[in-house]
Amino acid sequence: xxxxxxxxxxxxxxxxxxxxxxxxxxxxxxxxxxxxxxxxxxxxxxxxxxxxxxxxxxxxxxxxxxxxxxxxxxxxxxxxxxxxxxxxxxxxxxxxxxxxxxxxxxxxxxxxxxxxxxxxxxxxxxxxxxxxxxxxxxxxxxxxxxxxxxxxxxxxxxxxxxxxxxxxxxxxxxxxxxxxxxxxxxxxxxxxxxxxxxxxxxxxxxxxxxxxxxxxxxxxxxxxxxxxxxxxxxxxxxxxxxxxxxxxxxxxxxxxxxxxxxxxxxxxxxxxxxxxxxxxxxxxxxxxxxxxxxxxxxxxxxxxxxxxxxxxxxxxxxxxxxxxxxxxxxxxxxxxxxxxxxxxxxxxxxxxxxxxxxxxxxxxxxxxxxxxxxxxxxxxxxxxxx
Length: 386
Ligand code: G3P
Ligand code: MG
What we know:
This protein is an alpha/beta fold. Helices cover 37% and strands 14% of the residues.
């Protein structure tokens, strides 16, 4: 029996059983996913979902509307995942395993680290290039721990790196907060003294998450970037610079959007280009880059494979998604990205975050506009399961 006919039967029998559609969906998907046929059970769903986080599911740490209930519909009655989905966020600052735990708590469902795709997740691909080189990680949270988990062996947070250079931030003594400079010292290999750090060239700077102290970070990054990675020395070839995303703004708990990493990039670039003869060179990851969506598709296939392999339904290389839904709040990031990625992506724009318009967005129109993520999930389940 095909997947959608299993669900359709359940939905048809809804009136007889007087149960809510979502309850029936859990039941049917439970049978579908966990009845473990000996050789051939029903095939995996031909669709998957990618959820943006900020402005769709959460505002700061608070769930938006009924986003928890919307996600719960993707699990069976035992709380096991029934519909393959991932979180596709440009945010970050924490390891995927930690973020999965936090999302589980905030959203009330079990989230696996495999489902968490953050702006900085693709930095992993650069490990072979910088594995043993000194690199600096910038941003809120634990940027050095993130990079260290990816396999970078000589990574320092900018907090710690700056702490080795006396006077590098002339405003430091006006700043009353405490930086966690000692927290990541274990991530260093073979560099234990100030001289070790100050005499080794920084080969790359990674903006992992939003900068906390723009004035200090812009100052120190300009020092690193204009001197070839040796602050206080002469001008040298610019080390590599990577940003986890280029979001100008994003939706947090404040009613209007907040400045994001893209705004920080503009500030750094503008200042660097004013004090340096050559324009700043950099690479931005994150949505809307199409490779982020291709990677999300690959991860969704992996997810299907891990859920279904016991039932003998092939593997991540063979599963084909007829449709992948991107639910986002930012037209120039989420919708633009899904549109560029093309088939099988279908974009759904919510009005709960950066986008607050009544009609579709003029420049980056979505395939569909809805008020909330619950509306989006409702639409998807009705379309795919009846
Ligand atoms: O810093 C977070 C932000 O840039 C966007 O997060 O979940 O809306 O992609 P998200
Ligand atoms: Mg968003």
